[in-house]
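[audit] Reproducing an earlier prediction to check determinism. Same input, same settings, fresh worker. If the tokens differ from the archived copy the diff job will pick it up downstream; this log only records the rerun itself.
[audit] input (378 residues):
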Amino acid sequence: MNGRMSPKNINDQQEHSESLWKPQVPKWAIIAIAVTAGVILLACILCIVIKCCCKKKKQKKKDKISLLGINGSTTTNFVQPDVDDLDAGLTERRGKLQYSLEYDFRTQELTVGVKQASQLIAMDSGGTSDPYVVTYLTTNLKKKYETKVQHKTLNPIFKEYYTFHIPQSDVSDAAVVMKVYDFNRFMKHDIIGEVRIPLKSIDLNHVIEEWRELDQAVKDEQERLGDICFSLRYVPATSKMTVIILEAKNLKPMDTDGLSDPYVKIQLILNKKKWKKKKTTVKKNTLSPYYNETFTFEVPFEQIQNVVMVISVWDHDKVSKNEAIGKLFLGCKATGNQLQHWSDMLANPRRPIAQWHTLQPADEVDNAVGIKTRFKIP
């Protein structure tokens, strides 16, 4: 052979050497690798799906919010209108009123000027209104002023002034109300709107003159009668009930000068019949009288459950009949603060219990108590 290898032997030797270097991979490893790759691929697909879904949700939320800012004439405005459009529909412009306020600290008088109104809403079928203004203080609903009616106009000029007597101590509790009405000769007058100014919110050291938008009128407030503070004390062992009338405040004015001459009457009712009564002294020309007067009644313990106490504030008048400003009653048949005060008195014998109460209309209290007269009136 001359030391040479044939081509066939050379090829066989190369294949043998390649077979020695080629790694031997078992079948189970191949299967494991395939399974792992499949799991990884499945996980990747799942992550992609979740991410896409989240993007869609976020996009929907953004689209919904973005509709609020669209002011164009697209159909989205019919689905979800702009917030400004909603506010404009809820707050209808009723017009505006020009007024003035001036308080005289020396005479304790408030002068209210109703100047003019502008851009009032039309209440009549002809596109106009017949406006007039009613002015009053919330602390004295009995005294109200009306301007002259200005016919067929939405921009009336009044230039009318009214004076209210109000003590400086009551200013913080009062508000000026100016209600604009549309006059109708044969039907109930329609209210256009109102301006309400709490006096504690303005500086009365200066004359105020300004325009203000009319608001929707609130329901007429119940006439304020005032508040009274007194203490109760009951001693079962001696059957003594002690009543101390301390003070009252913000009473309803009964005289033409805006004041009253108040006194307090204490009345015990037994089985719906008048039993015992006492009264305080009269305090002249005041709406916030101070008494600190003590009264004692003998009430047997066996009758305490059947007794009703009526506290009433009256305006003394030398010429005409005294008028009741307001009343309230206490007892086991009372309710609210009055029942609580009565219960506290019984639960704390020999201890005076003081509390403030709001006066109520006299006829309502009389009906609730069901007072019967001693004698039949023909």
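[audit] rerun output stored. Observation attached for the diff report: The chain has a mean pLDDT of 81.
[audit] end
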